[in-house]
Write a structure and sequence with these properties.
Elements lengths: L4 E5 L7 H4 L10 E6 L7 E6 L5 H16 L3 E4 L5 H11 L4 E4 L13 H9 L3 E4 L9 H14 L2 E6 L5 H11 L4 E3 L10 H8 L3 E2 L3 H8 L1 H8 L6 H12 L4 E2 H8 L3 H13 L3 E4 L2 E4 L2
Parallel strand pairs: 3-4, 3-7, 4-5, 5-6, 7-8, 8-9
Antiparallel strand pairs: 1-2, 2-6, 10-12, 11-12
Helix pairs in contact: 2-3, 5-6, 10-12
Length: 290
């Protein structure tokens, strides 16, 4: 499929695990236009937030997305400037898949500044999707309606930075109606950009301060341990044990210092632990999936 534009009618959504989640949502989706590859067998997480993002918000969105994508999650967002752009970039830089849901026809990227990012999304086996046919402009109301698609496609929604009046609050509203869990990153007390975020937390959304909070609350670790029995090599077991004992993430240098292993052996062992989904990477540090 790749760069070809494909239209899929609603009566065919059930043929695809990814699109089947759109069946029955309100307002209903009549058809979907796709450019790129339709994802398969991935846990999808929406990362959303304001266009007028702070440097803190953009870095947080990027770091969350990078770490989750590195660990096999598919990131969904809206390709808008600000938080959405940072989320897509984090996934792409991690070599992971991401899906951008647009509020206009796929013959034109909006905003135009994200043209190259859109190409990278497709190159990484992700896709662009829209319910609007080609040549449909990005009317203001379209942005609010596309947010129901972002939440519907996701297993959970992470709100990074949201004022009271923002599309992210609409995404959270749709997620609540669709019975999807909502996670919120807190900000500075009194900050205009986090007024909506803090309102969501007071209304029952789950406060998270890192990727590990999200993984723990979603119990991905329990699912993994019940279904997989893994035999580790000596170096891998030694590193895993030290990460398990540590109260905080460890860098490669720190792991070398503790285990007395050389950097090459540590890097090799960590790569295998990542593949086995026993540890995850956050920036330059590593920790087990608690």
């Amino acid at each position: 499929m790749k760069n070809n534009l494909t239209k899929i009618e609603s009566d065919s959504f059930k043929k695809y695990d990814f699109l089947e989640k759109l069946s029955g949502i309100i307002p209903p989706v009549e058809s979907i236009y796709i450019k790129g590859e339709i994802p398969k067998n991935k846990t999808c997480v929406a990362i959303v937030g304001t266009r007028k993002a702070s440097a803190y918000g953009e870095k947080t969105a990027y770091d969350f997305s990078f770490t989750l994508a590195k660990n096999g999650f598919l990131i969904i967002s809206g390709l808008a400037i600000g938080i959405d752009t940072s989320a897509h970039r984090g996934a792409v830089d991690a070599g992971g898949q991401t899906v951008a849901v647009l509020a206009n026809g796929l013959d034109k990227i909006y905003p135009a500044s994200n043209n190259q990012l859109a190409d990278k999304i497709i190159s990484n086996n992700g896709c662009l999707i829209s319910e609007y046919p080609p040549q449909t402009p990005s009317f203001p109301g379209n942005f609010l309606m596309r947010n129901r698609i972002i939440s519907a496609l996701s297993s959970a929604v992470i709100v990074i930075e949201a004022p009271f009046k923002s599309g992210s609050m609409t995404t959270a509203k749709f997620a609540t109606e669709q019975k999807k869990p909502i996670f919120v990153v807190p900000g500075t007390i009194g900050s205009f950009n986090f007024n909506g975020s803090h309102k969501l937390i007071r209304s029952g959304a789950r406060l998270i301060t890192g990727v590990n909070d999200f993984l723990s609350d979603m119990s991905y670790d329990l699912i993994r341990e019940e279904n997989k029995k893994i035999e580790l090599k000596t170096d891998e077991q030694k590193i895993f044990n030290e990460l398990k004992k540590s109260s905080r993430p460890l860098s490669v240098d720190k792991i070398c210092q503790i285990t007395k292993l050389n950097p090459r052996d540590v890097s090799c062992a960590l790569s295998n632990l990542l593949l086995e989904e026993l540890v995850f990477q956050e920036g330059t540090n590593y920790q087990i999936k608690l």
